[in-house]
Amino acid sequence: MKFEKIHNKGQAQIFENKYLEMLTKGHPAVIWGMYIPLLSYCIYYGISRYDLSVLTVICLFFGAMLFWTLFEYFAHRYLFHWTAEQPSLKRIVYIFHGNHHHYPRDKQRLFMPPVPSILLASIIFLIQYLILGKYGFAFFPGFMIGYLLYASMHYLIHAVAPPFKFMKPLWRNHHLHHYKDEELGFGVSNTFWDRIFGTMFDLKNEKEDKEKVKELMFEKKS
Q1: Which runs of consecutive H residues, i.e. helices, occur in 75-198?
Q2: What are the percentages of helix, strand and coil residues in the chain, rounded to 5?
Q3: Distance CA 169, CA 19 (A)
Q4: Residue 39, SS3?
Q5: Residue among 157, 156, 159 nearest 171 (CA)
Q6: I need a surface site. Which of 131, 149, 182, 204 has the fewest CB within 10 A?
Q7: Which parts of the chain register pLDDT below 50?
């Protein structure tokens, strides 16, 4: 996913139709506001309709959040950075993730937009329900909260400096993924799986390029 020029201003144009183009953008508050009631009802339904115990719900919920981190790693590594040859597949990869590397300051495309997000989430729920049955009503909310936390962390990494010193390796790992080597640093919400699978940057020996990092951060309004 190499580009001759990384744009620090503007946005990628995904569709020529302005209405379709609008559907490719989203705001974090809208996405959180859309999912919290839905996921809360999902848990309520699982408890009231299927008599899921509180302990079962808690275990499945947090287990799904952990599972998300693994899903996040493999999705970023093998789907979002898929090296496709066919033009149609290249376009799909660009729509899903390539535009972010091309326009890293575009804050409207760090969350999956509402309409495609709901469609994809519905498919994911159906798959999980077919596999887990009634337990999907507790697993699915945890999985989606994992996604929302991941997307929010991604937003913060491009918006602000790490708020705590222990978070700096996470910030640097993602910055280096952008400007140093796209074949490393696939973890966004965590670095655990990068360390496990050997794709973690050697942060001790990697010198930080402050100018490159600045180019990845959202432009501050004066």
Answers
A1: 87-93, 99-102, 114-132, 136-159, 168-179, 192-197
A2: 65, 0, 35
A3: 39
A4: helix
A5: 157
A6: 204
A7: none
